[in-house]
Amino acid sequence: MGTDWNLDLAVLPNELKMLLLLVKNESEGSKTPLVEEQFYGTDWNLFLELARHHRVYPYIFNQVKTMDSFVPAYVIQELRHEYQRNTFHMLRLSGEMEQFCKLLSDNEIKVLLLKGPALAADLYGDLSKRTCSDLDVLISIDDLEHTHELLESGGYVRDEYFSTVLNDWKWRHHHMTYFHPQKKIKLEIHWKLNPGPSFEPAFNELWARKRLSTLTSSPVYMLGHEDLFMFLVSHGARHGWSRLRWLLDMDRILRIHHGWGRLGFLLKKYQLKHVGGQALLLSSELLGTPMPMEFSSLAASKRAKQLAQETLFYIKQMIHLHNEPLPDDVARYHKRHLFNLMSFQLKLLHVLSFLYPYPMDVEIMPLPKSLHFLYFPLRPFLWIWRKTRKQAWL
After folding, report:
1. 17: part of which helix (H) or strand (E)?
2. What confidence tens digit (pLDDT) does each residue in 180-210 have?
3. How many domains does the chain have?
4. Residue 33, preceding peptide bond in cis (omega within 30° of 0)
5. pLDDT of residue 36
6. Are 224 and 208 within 8 A, CB to CB?
7. Does residue 28 sit in the same domain as residue 175?
8. Which pLDDT score is estimated for 217?
């Protein structure tokens, strides 16, 4: 790897190390036969729990089923059930994805697929090898209202999961969630790649670098390779790489794609060099991913190493960041880690963003909408009042 540094993997449970071994072996084409001695003392219930949490069970299933001489039958049976269930789910999502993209295309709305079945086909060459709970798509913010009308007419219901004031949703948030009660399918409509404040390409720039997916008969489009790399890096880092599936995506894109063109320039432009280095280190150390020579300097930076080591906090504990409220220690750690991920400019913008009114200010002091601009000068006083009231309750 060109560095004299390694992750401290002693903090990881043996069952997770076994899982990493299977993932690495699969990525390398199962060239090294795994033997019973490597799995002595394995807690197979914990192994199953880890495989489910990290969403890598469909990737390792073909290997595990050949290890029936020493892997308990119930483990293979459970993984087979999960594998088959996921395959059917991905096929359903693939059909819905094609219908949705055609609907938007027929209404002259440009749409880019972020994850889902198209990503599975692109990186894994097989729908059944990657899990996906929903469909994630990116559109221009100018097309949100029209898309909302189309989804509602098709039976989707929007999940109003956040409040807003003075249109802060446009930059503080990055997607809205829809759910189809009959189809049982969740759809996330993104107008940005990441929540704000953030630096990222404009939609038209992403559209200009799009790729055509080979998964469907009607045309559906994906992010270009460089943009997909940046998205996977920023998304995984924001979630602490708490699921190995996201790191496995990095492994796949690095193994199948070569010649990164302007990626170094783009990582620098959007202030993601250190986050890219974190992802490269984690993928190399945990999954044995070959590191492109042009990226070795990213992984060699002191900051990338620190961020990579911090990530093991999430991986070893099976932390699910969407299960709120988070335990206090996890919430504090995650808040600090997110801040550490920011560039200096983003940290400054993040601090300044606290001066912009929050929906909770409206709850504390309701004002007519025409007077919402007053929340700007009132913001410091409302913040102090809320903190004082919180301390009084403790």
Report:
1. helix 14-27
2. 999 999 999 999 999 999 999 999 999 999 9
3. 2
4. no
5. 85
6. no
7. yes
8. 86
